[in-house]
UniProtKB/TrEMBL annotation:
Catalytic activity annotation: acetate + ATP = acetyl phosphate + ADP
High-level lineage: Bacteria, Bacillati, Actinomycetota, Actinomycetes, Micrococcales
Subcellular location: Cytoplasm
PANTHER family assigned: ACETATE KINASE, ACETATE KINASE-RELATED
Protein function: Catalyzes the formation of acetyl phosphate from acetate and ATP. Can also catalyze the reverse reaction.
Keyword Flavoprotein on entry: no
Cofactor, free-text remark: Mg(2+). Can also accept Mn(2+).
TM region positions: none
Residues that hold ATP according to the record: 14, 181-185, 254-256, 302-306
Assembly information from the UniProt record: Homodimer.
GO cellular component: cytoplasm
Pfam families: Acetate_kinase
Record's protein name: Acetate kinase
Amino acid sequence: MIILVINSGSSSLKYQVREGDDVLAEGLVERIGEAEVPDHAAALDRVDREVAEALGERTIDAVGHRVVHGGERFSEPVLIDNEITRAIERLNPLAPLHNPAAVTGIRAITEKWPDLPQVAVFDTAFHRTLPERAWRYAVPDELYRKHGIRRYGFHGTSHAYVARGAAELLGTDAFTGVIAHLGNGASVAAVRDGESIDTSMGFTPLEGLVMGTRSGDIDPSILLFLLREGYSEKDLDTLLNRNSGLKGLTGTNDMRSVSESADSGDERAKLAVEVASYRLAKYVGGYHVAVGGAEALVFTAGIGENAADFRAAVVSKLGALGLELDESLNAERSKHARVISTPSSAFPVLVVPTDEEAAIAEATAAVVAGS
Ligand code: AMP
């Protein structure tokens, strides 16, 4: 089955065409809304031309959309119809930057290829198994009932994919342990018997770990303080979502340059690595308890798969759990799932590469085949 995977942003459209593990085409249309690409329909025309060139006589069988927010309704991928599209649209207030773009992408495809099956794959879905004690904020119930304020969690497609990969590597049926997805956005998930039972991102992707440009956990009173100091809502949004995290601590959100600067003795970079790795180590300790004893700690995504020194900084803080990295295995570069701990480590530390497009394509093929 040939699947077109679409990741719609407000002004960009990323796509990949896959047949099983083979990537037949991929690309990115940017600056949607400007003269050359006035709207998502125009972006899609461009994708259509590029895909047709790559496929020749063959054609796409289905489309899989990455949808950031599935709210409380969606706990698995679904075949899209008008009612589903409207349901995704109703979740726009929960993900104002992301869901409207996905809806626009879905409608543009419905218009262009009305007979092509489309599947929505939600970033929140994997975390629908969180118990209430993990998703509740300790605030009046009205906030939940009126505004849907609760913890949802994100990166679910990646966490689910990596949990399956880790189980395969460990030779178990279902994964129990802790997964650290460390990309520009970062989150950690506590997984028991293959199900997410806690995760560090909350109502939005701002909660939790130190990220490329996001602060992660802070005392909410800081917002109140800054409001009194004259900051606007937009200022606070920009401050915490775009100018904080590694960028706020060092001036750059790129872990490669942070690592290089730290290596050459830059104090701010060294501190940033310490703050970020300490925060993550605390979550790992907590989630080890939450899952009733992890069978493995797994690193994934850009930083998790590539930044050996950052992994070492995290694991060095987990001595109390009996974790021990094998320095040469940790330093090895590879695209494959692998163990990077010593045989005497209390439980293995793994690197399992993520592939969200592959996961979306697999889910899409499964939904279409089953419909
Ligand atoms: P992602 O969002 O998964 O693409 O991850 C992006 C992050 O991974 C950025 O902070 C990059 O600096 C980081 N990254 C990618 N490659 C490396 C590398 N070789 N060493 C350190 N960090 C890396």
